[in-house]
Amino acid sequence: MKKSVLLIAVIMLLTFALPVFAEPAQSVPSFTEPLDYSDKANWAYFGEGDDKPADLFIICPTVDTRSYANSEDLNEKLKGRFVSALDAEKGIYSEACRLYSPYYRQMSIGAYTLGAEDFNKAKDNAYLDVSAAFRYYLDNENDGRPIVLAGFSQGAQMCIELLKEYFGGNAEGRKLKNRLVAVYAIGWRITEEDINQYPQIVPAKAESDIGSVVCYECEDGKVTGSIIIPEGVKTYSINPLNWKTDGTAADSSLNKGAVFSAEEAPIPGFCGAYIDESRGSLIVPGVSTEDFPKGLDVFPDGCFHLYDNMFFYTNLKENVSLRVNAFLAAQQTHRNTVSWIVGAAAAVLALCILGLVLNNRRKKNA
Question: How many domains is the chain partitioned into structurally?
Fold first, then answer.
């Protein structure tokens, strides 16, 4: 693949150019009302792929490079960038899932450079919309179907927030956990603190465990801190080539195909990977930072964040189908077990009734 084609595909997709921010505001306003998700104009995908066995609720990554904190103006040009970014991920999930994805007043890339108070306001603003969209989906579309949550970068961050709010220990949370196939929170972090506070956040430990979170962030091995994994923070990760959670290296022969453009064939054997056990980041050896630059100034040199999905595209695609099938098989096993228990109980009850009838007859004949 030519370097120029790669750079155009990535930079045009997510950034178009270096970020251009609005004049700094005094503070970030707090949104009070979410978008109206009964209006289909507020959805990028809505029920696309009706014949699929599971539902995908996928949240767009950061495509707003101009707003100060949040995308208050969801104009058609910005919506087009949502769709372009989502289409770059879509093929990973579309063979197994029916697709839902909301437009939302996301955090701009500039929000990640704000102080903690303003950043949290911007995050809450974005999540107000995401949560309202998920609630609308649950109430009007899900109907008990298996659920895959997915997102890249900010989208992954929002997925973790959905886990916190909706999949806890209350009655609804228990029901939803039983419908959760997996969460693909790629390009974000999950920490020990997250897991201790929210036990419903379960890091993936193997290639087909269900109800778990697939999470990783790609680096070159020299990065010490980034907005995804700050310095001193360790994230839980899983290697998408060998599905190990320790530092076991996966050879490039396990890579079934990197994908950088919908118009080009997958590239098998593109790279190997291993987990840095001190940071939890996924190290991608032998990949040139000149050929695959960071793309945005908010990232340090050696950060391959923009390529987290691309490097392992085919492996991820196969894994989604594997987890959906594992979920459906477990669901069928549960149904079979329940049917057997009900059948056995019915048989015992019938024998008891028959015994009572025979006993009454003996008493009458005595």
Answer: 1
